[in-house]
Structure formats: C-alpha cells, structure tokens
Design a protein that fits this description.
17-stranded parallel sheet, mainly beta
C-alpha cells in the first residue's frame, strides 16, 4: 500500500505484491519505465481528490483493476490479461494495452477506452456509463449483459467477431458501432441508439428474434467484404437504412416507416416488411425488393438500378423522379 491522500504517488522502481493499493490526492500517481507494477491478485487505485493515475510508461502486469474516487486511470498492462473490477461513478478508465479483457461485476462509471486482444462482458455484469466507450481488439468482442452508454459506444475487432450474445444488450445515448471488418457481427440482444453502425467482413451480419435493432436516426450497414446482412428475424425499427460496400442487405422493419438512403453500387436491398417507404437521395445500386404500406420516390431522388426492382404495397406507389432499372 502506498498512500498520499493529500499528495502524489511516484513509482520509479518495481512494485510487486499479490494486491497493490495506491492512494493519492489531486496530484495523482505516476511511474517511470522502471516502475513496473506486478499484482497477481489486483491493483486498486484510489484517486481521492481526482487527478490522474498515469500508469502507461511501464509494462505492468496486474490481474485486476479496481478504482475508487474520481479522476482518470490510465493503465498499460502490456500483453497480460486484465479483469475490470468496479470504479468510482465519475472515473474515466483507459486501458492502453492488455491481452484478454474481462469483467468481474456490474459497474457504473464515466467512460471506458480499452485496447486488448479480446473483450468479454459476462452475464449479469451490467455496465452503465455516463460517457463514451471505445473498445478495440484483435480478437472477439462479446457483450453478455446490458451495456448502457451515455455517449457514443464503439466496439471494434480487427480480426475477430463482434457479438451481442443472448442475455446481452447495447443501449443508451450516442451512436452505437459494432465493427468486425474481417469477421462477423451477431446481434442476439437489443441494440438501440440514435444511429447504429454495423460493419462486417464476408461472414456478414445476423440477428436473433431478441436482437431487435432500434435506430431513431438510422442504421448504416457496411458489408466491407460482401456477404449478407440478414436482419429479418427480429421486428426492427430503424428510421433510415443506408448501405456501403457490397453484398446483400435484408431488413424486416416490422410496421415502421423506413427512409432509404444511399447504397454501395453492387448492393442488393431487400425490405421484407415496413410501413411507408420513402427515398432521401439519388442512389445507384444493384437491386431493390421492398414490401410496405406505401412507396414514395421524391423529386430529384433519381434511382439507377443495375438489376431488378420489385415493389409491393397495400397503399400508394408514387415515382417522383427518374427510376432506371437494369432488369424487370
């Protein structure tokens, strides 16, 4: 235990113990490259008066990180696994490097910025953040409990899959981003945000009936490696659909109105159910199959479709701009 409740804590040499506890005043905590912290059970950082625990200069090895007080905790855990404990309600947590990152309990704090080989939120470990979340991994990302963000929440894997598994959900304010450019995105729990952005590799995007996507501003689907975004199992509610990349986007928007944005030049768009379907801009893409209560193409929103178009409605169909089809 190193405690300076009204001062600073400086670590310029090795600090080792099963449990390491550091307490400082507003001056915070610092370390040099030689000040490696090794804690086989865990590290507790108490920023009693705020300030910053700047623990990124050395290649630390702590099994679990817990915080109390306020301020910001910055930790470099090198290539070692890291379990996240609980934190002060206004604490910002930044993990600049780690191996597998896991959760140990439900937690409420300000923000999370974490980089590791993987990120796993276990069942019942509900997270409530007042600010933003940025999680970057090389491997899998798995959300297994409710994760509520107070601002933008982004989960990105460069080489693995990103999943909201059964029992998990991603909710709250701010844009919600799930990105697996070389893998798959699976939505098996509620996904809600003003804007939702989904990016996958050739393996595509899937959902279960519980994986309802609600996006009051819109859903952006980036099929970077082609494949299919199969979003027809749940009764989704997205205000606007936009696509980039290639492949096929299948969407069930239940009885909710849907505005069509722009799409990748070779993308096929299939809307299996919706309320009123409208256009928002001129667009060029591969094909359109849409079922809704009505279809309205507004003035100047010229469509150029290289393949077929099939529009089925119970109400009016109105074409108010040039619609060029490449097939039936």
């Amino acid at each position: 235990t190193l405690s300076a409740a009204a001062g600073t804590v400086t670590i310029n040499g090795a600090l080792t113990g099963p449990t390491v506890a550091l307490t400082s005043g507003a001056g915070g905590i610092s370390q040099s490259a030689a000040g490696v912290i090794t804690a086989s059970t865990g590290l507790t950082v108490n920023l009693a008066s705020g300030g910053v625990a700047a623990l990124t200069t050395a290649n630390n090895n702590v099994a679990q990180l817990t915080g109390t007080g306020s301020g910001t905790i910055n930790l470099n855990n090198n290539t070692n696994n890291l379990a996240l404990g609980t934190f002060g309600a206004t604490q910002a947590i930044n993990v600049t490097a780690a191996d597998a990152i896991t959760t140990t309990a439900a937690a409420s704090f300000a923000s999370l910025d974490a980089t590791g080989s993987s990120f796993t939120q276990s069942a019942t470990h509900n997270y409530t953040l007042t600010g933003a979340s940025v999680v970057n991994t090389t491997g899998a990302v798995s959300l297994g409990a409710t994760y509520t963000g107070g601002a933008a929440s982004s989960f990105t894997s460069s080489a693995g899959n990103v999943s909201i598994i059964a029992g998990g959900s991603l909710l709250g304010a701010g844009t919600k981003t799930l990105s697996a450019t070389a893998g798959t995105v699976t939505v098996n729990g509620a996904l809600t945000g003003p804007t939702v952005v989904l990016t996958s590799g050739a393996g595509g995007i899937s959902q279960s009936a519980a994986g309802v996507i609600t996006a009051s501003g819109g859903l952006v689907v980036n099929l970077a490696g082609g494949g299919t975004a199969a979003l027809t199992t749940a009764n989704n509610n997205v205000a606007q659909l936009t696509g980039t990349g290639a492949g096929t986007i299948d969407l069930n928007n239940n009885t909710n109105n849907l505005a069509l944005g722009t799409f990748g030049a070779t993308q096929a768009i299939n809307v299996t159910a919706a309320g009123a379907i409208t256009t928002t801009a001129a667009a060029s893409f591969a094909s359109l199959a849409a079922t809704g209560t009505s279809f309205t193409q507004s003035a100047t929103h010229n469509y150029i479709i290289s393949g077929a178009t099939t529009i089925n409605t119970t109400g009016a169909v109105s074409l108010g701009a040039t619609y060029t089809g490449g097939a039936a």
